[in-house]
Amino acid sequence: MSWMASARHGVREAPAGLALLQELLNTRPPMAYGTDLLMEVDDAQRWLTEALATWSHISGLPAPTLLLSSSDLRSLRRLRSTFENVMLASGGPAGSLPPADVPVSLVPDADGWVRIVPTGRGTRWLASALWAEALLAQQAGLWPRLKLCNNIECRAAFFDTSRNNSGVWHDVSTCGNTANLRAFRERRRLMGGSGALPPRPTVQGPPSLI
């Protein structure tokens, strides 16, 4: 059984190490069902172990073994909310969010390329890795395509692959249709219930020859 969070929401995985940040965001329960993976230590531990193994494979960097406690879960939930606020503030005024107080190391590899390597212990290491991946995604131009679903009852983190980066729903057939129906009902309420469902299109046959 996979404990990857994004798979529960049925979303496309973000490329490279950005998938780790997407994973954290998607630990929230899918819609009105499912569980928050950061509420119970056992669930969070299974999720984090698998997520870090996947990140390590993608990034080529070693990931420490993090053993979580109840206090760690509170830290992870705060970190999740922080990144949600960062994403929602994209395009807003500069300086509206506090700085991320996390360390990273700049390490040259054998080819002379400088890499950003997470440092720290426990959840501080995880925070370092997540902020580093956010920075790398911004430098690569990937950051604007990681979005939160516009359905406030969903808020799944999805990677927008549309040509013009115009996607707003993690799944148009579910959240998109739900939002359209909610908007229609609100318009109908404001009109005193006089609104009607749009008529179904009719198919006309060939003109009569009689």
Automatic annotation (TrEMBL):
Gene3D superfamilies membership: Jann2411-like domain (1.10.3300.10)
SUPFAM superfamilies, sorted: Jann2411-like (SSF160904)
Coiled-coil intervals: none
Highest taxon of source: Bacteria
Protein name (database record): CGNR zinc finger domain-containing protein
Domain Zinc finger CGNR: 145-188
Region (Disordered): 191-210
Source organism (scientific name): Paractinoplanes pyxinae
Pfam families per UniProt: zf-CGNR (PF11706)
